[in-house]
Amino acid sequence: MNSVDKLVQKKLMEAARAVGFLEGMSTWLWTKVGPDLTDEAVVEFEKRVSAIAECFGLDREDY
């Protein structure tokens, strides 16, 4: 594996961790705020996290 491949792999792993963090944040929000969150807000957050993951070329099972 050359240095370019290692850099690409490192960046992909960083992106996966960032998306995982955002998904964890949605779980935290739900447990802390729970019923006060509107369903629409939760759906919108999840859509945005998915859009970010898609920008990085991540499939749902990657993170």
Description:
With about 60 residues, the protein is an all-alpha fold. It has one domain. It is built from two helices and no strands. The radius of gyration is 14 Å and the shape is elongated. The two termini are about 25 Å apart. The mean pLDDT is about 80.
Report a brief summary of the structure.
Helices cover 76% and strands 0% of the residues.
Key features?
mainly alpha, 63 residues, 2 helices
* Contiguous uncertain segments of 5+ residues: none
Beta-strand percent range: under 5%
Instruction: Give the biggest sheet.
Output: none
Q: How many DSSP-defined strands?
A: 0
Morphology call: elongated
Q: What is the N-to-C succession of helices and strands?
A: HH
Structural class estimated from helices and strands: mainly alpha
**Percent of residues in helical segments?**
over 70%
Mean pLDDT: 80
Q: What would you report as the Rg, rounded to the nearest angstrom?
A: 14 Å
Please report the number of helical segments.
2
Distance between the termini: 23 Å
Number of domains: 1
List the helices and strands and how they pair.
Layout: H1 3-33, H2 39-55
Helix pairs in contact: 1-2
